[in-house]
Amino acid sequence: MKTNKRTYLMSSIMIVLFATIFLLIVGRFLYIQATGEIDNVSLEKWAEEKRTTSYTLDSQRGKIYGRNGMTLAYDRPVYRIQAIVRDSYTTNPEDPRHVKNPEKTAEKLAPLLDTDKNYILRRLTKAIEQERFQVEFGNAGKELSQQTKERIEKLELPGIRFKEESIRYYPNGMFAAHVIGFAQKQDGLITGKMGIEQAMNKKLSGKDGHISYEQDQYGDKLLDPNEIIEKPENGNDVYVTIDQKIQTLLEDVMTQVETEYSPEGITAAVMDPKTGEILAMSNRPSYNPNKLEDVENWNNDIISTPFEPGSTMKMFTWAAAIEEGVYNGNEQFQSGTYKINDRVRGVNDHNWGKGWGTITFDEGFARSSNVAASRLVWEKIGTEAYLNYLKAFDFDEKTGIELPRERKGTLVYNYPRDKITTAFGQATSLTPIQQMKAATAIANDGKMVKPYVISKVVNPATGDVIKEKKPEVVGEPISKETSDHVLNLLGSVVSSEHGTGKKYKLADYSVAGKTGTAQIYEDGSYLTGYGNYIYSFLGMAPKEDPRLMMYVSVKQPDVEIGEESGSTPVAFIFKNVMQKSLHYLDIEPDKDTSEQVNPIELPKLTGKNTSSIKQTLKEKGLNVTLIGSGDTIKAASAVKGEELLEGDRIILVTNKPVMPDITGWSMRDVLQLANLLDLKVETMGNGYVIKQSVTKGTPLKKNDYLGVELEPPEPMREQTEGNDHTETDDGSDEQA
Questions:
Q1: What is the domain extent for residue 16?
Q2: Angle value at C-alpha 88, between 87 and 92, nearest 5 degrees
Q3: Catalytic positions
Q4: Could you tell me the pTM of the whole model?
Q5: Mind telling me which residue stretches traverse the membrane in this protein (predicted)?
Q6: Helix, strand, coil: what percent of the chain each, to 5?
Q7: 194 and 131 co-located in one domain
Q8: Last residue of a domain, one of 238, 255, 290
């Protein structure tokens, strides 16, 4: 009886216990069903989160445009290839959605991804073994072009899909690379690293958007996906002052000099001295911002590399003397050597101290006499007054140009010899852009303007101008009378019998300018030997009312002793760029000589009969390139009233455009063709075209892709004027 009672008791306890547990579980389920929550977590929201995927909607970085509206930088779509390897993703065996045959897939993809078949096969096989959903192919599968994507899609390989991304792209390659700079992805965002891309990064950068929606286990969007979209805000567009034609001309000529003379470096810039706008700027070595391997020179030397300028400095020394009222150009002095006292080493003229006997100060300027410059500072102006002029020309400050990493030179002005050698461009260092800024006062009636490269910032969505740059006068170190006087002296450097700049003459424009030969300081001493200098020229034209100013320097060119001076490649760059740029800007020639070039004024071209207009232009001496076989001209690379020079290329697009043979074309010609036909052009290299991706005779339509490969031209030497091989400036022993 006791045993039965105990059994009954234990059974009752177990029944009550299990009943309690059951009621708790049922109650819990009922509670969950009624409230839809577990531990204050909504099951509905939790399930929604599990089904919801989200990703960023990339904003477009603003574009960079040139003065003529040419696109210099933009976000280019590229593609990342992905391979789905999970077989459960395929719902219909007749239409596989995963990689069904890894061997065949690897074999087909390898040549298009420019990689090894076994590499792709290993990636696919490993992903299948690990039961992964998809796999990518590292760097080989990234940043694929639209053309490569389309070629892969034509293979119709199961399981292969693409993800669109963006990279920063520079359609003109090396064009103004140090000015535009480049941008790269950093933490998922395209960020400016150099040049305008870095300086204007905040304005160019956009704000990314966001999208989220519900999906099934295979990543497909549900029928009712609860989609939420936050649209991205694109960055602002930046317009720069760089002129397409002048910059392209400068790049082409600098490439020729680089090929012919193998210099250590070249710098050149073209400026409107009335406004301060930089129309062209380039350096050698340069780089292609699309391909950043093995870059030799990251610096924009025009703004970032101060050096002792040499005799270009003399224009400011003479300007100070004239403004101070102590200059008499007819006063004579003994050239050759000059010592201020027995304790300070003397100064020699650049012909090893021989000089030219007793000459006037005006002749001393034309001959680039160091002795004349030293006497003006020490005996006429006074060293302290001269220092004030140096500061008035802002030689102790940066110019403030809107480019990163600008450096200023150093006024070395401690000892007597520092002060007199600064007068002719030694001891003190300056950047080329500092010299150009100061020279605007000479070209602009005494008013010094600030150089700039950003013309405006525009909201691409509304077209509103957010910021616009206007010319800015930042000083008036000399008077109009002084500037006129200095311009005449600078003209004598080029035009007079004794001038050091005779080889810088232009055929139909007068030139005012100053030559420079700067010593190179390395390892505690100055280099010696033929060609071991930085040869430069700062010139402007026309002389009476300068509309363009150009600075060119060539460091250590490979010139042959006795056959050509170091200034020969400098003159080649200056003359080619300046002459053609002045004509392109429709600036009236001011010389009437037998050498004058008569520009060809164009008639109306569009809508005209193809054969008749082609014949007319050929008779005028133009190089006519006809695009297509249509009977009507639909577009042209120049318009009615524009002036070209004999031999210039003009492109005529007919109503049936087809691809021409562009072998031998310059980059400028290729860009004109691309703009006329709305082609997406990609350039590789620099110089002249040797290969083209679209074969001759192929019909062309808007947004077609054209890839071209360019190489520098054959070595080309300038035909110099006369037989003047005199060194143009300072001697090799003029430094304190």
A1: 2-52
A2: 90
A3: 311
A4: 0.76
A5: 7-31
A6: 30, 25, 45
A7: yes
A8: 238
